[in-house]
């Protein structure tokens, strides 16, 4: 403001001085002409400066700010400063928008933005995978035209978005179950959120099956015991008959106890996040003990053979013993009398790669059909339910084996042919092996060949 006043005062003084001097010498008319000329020059200079400023304001840039004097220079300075502030704010907002879009892209849920006409404004890659969309090609297309699903069409038409919609679709890796939720916002716009709940549904189905199986497994022996108790109270039995009934009740009680023990073991293996306390186990002694248990369970009805290379295994003794015992007891139970069960521990040194060890249990039993093998380690899965119950199995043995081996970074392999028998092999990595003999420090020279020969029982 002060610069404007000084400029006006300067122009007035210049006009008065010029007009006064000319009027002193030439009279009033030339003085008036001089004053007008000075005014026209000032107006012309201001007009030129104004035109330069207007031209710059149409396409303002920092590198082509026009030169000016006086008030126009002040105005250009202030305009350029506001331009820099505006560009800084725009860049900041664009960066925030970019990071927001990146966050939506990284979301595990699908996100679709729709306008008031249900046309797609934007979608992330997860939503594109859920609904088979192209994030660029399908923009400005109606969602109901692209997501061809009768349930979704009815959901959008009803406009009741309080509850999510569960809809099934065929994805790239198989059928999907999607939870779709519409959230209205703004002036009729909509936010569509999609979530893949396929695994949640599978887990819930497994939970229902697990509860149903446990209830059935416990209910059956309880029903038998309750019937015997009622019979003992209502009827008179001889001593032999009473002893027989009590024996049957004891069998059912043992069955429930084994089931509860296996459930507790499985719950511990699945729910304990900590690595088990490890110790060195002599596998020759382990194989000999497993063979002795197999002979006791077989009661002379099978040929039990065992062989073991020298060396030890590091791991949780309780968990690995439980896993190995389950494999051995299954082999004995499902092998007809006169068959053979072989227990083997081998330390292998391949030509390529690190050494590894393999514990295997082979039998000449009834075998398993190929379609059943992938599901053998599921809880309560039985190939033959009647035979499994007759043999005293709970249906949890191989599930316990799987989880115990997973905690020891080992791999279970199953090969079987119906009518010829089965082989269950467990492969342990080098990190789990202790090839030194008891009393020999790890890393000491290898024992003589004779000390590493297999033993047979």
Instruction: Give the quaternary arrangement of the chains.
Output: single chain
What is the CATH topology of the largest domain? Heat Shock Protein 90
CATH top level of the largest domain?
Answer: Alpha Beta
| Low confidence ranges | 438-457
Helix and strand content put the structural class at alpha+beta
H-E order:
HHHEEHHHEEEHHEHEEHEEHHEEEE
Rg over CA atoms, rounded to whole Å, is: 44 Å
Report, as a whole number of angstroms, the end-to-end distance: 111 Å
Provide the CATH architecture of the largest domain: 2-Layer Sandwich
Instruction: Identify the CATH homologous superfamily of the largest domain.
Output: Histidine kinase-like ATPase, C-terminal domain
Shape annotation = elongated
Beta-strand residue percentage: 15-25%
Count of individual beta strands: 14
Number of helices: 12
Number of domains: 4
Strand order of the largest sheet: 11-12-10-9-7-14
Q: How confident is the prediction overall: mean pLDDT?
A: 80
How is the biggest beta sheet arranged?
6 strands, mixed
Helical fraction? 40-55%
Transmembrane segments: 5-26
Biased composition (Low complexity): 437-447
Main location: membrane
InterPro entries: BphY/WalK/GraS-like (IPR050351), HATPase_C_sf (IPR036890), HATPase_dom (IPR003594), His_kinase_dom (IPR005467), HisK_dim/P_dom (IPR003661), HisK_dim/P_sf (IPR036097), PAS-like_dom_sf (IPR035965), PAS_fold (IPR013767)
Record keyword descriptors for this entry:
51% helix; 4 domains; Helix Hairpins; five-stranded antiparallel beta sheet; disordered C terminus; 457 residues; Beta-Lactamase; alpha+beta; elongated; six-stranded mixed beta sheet
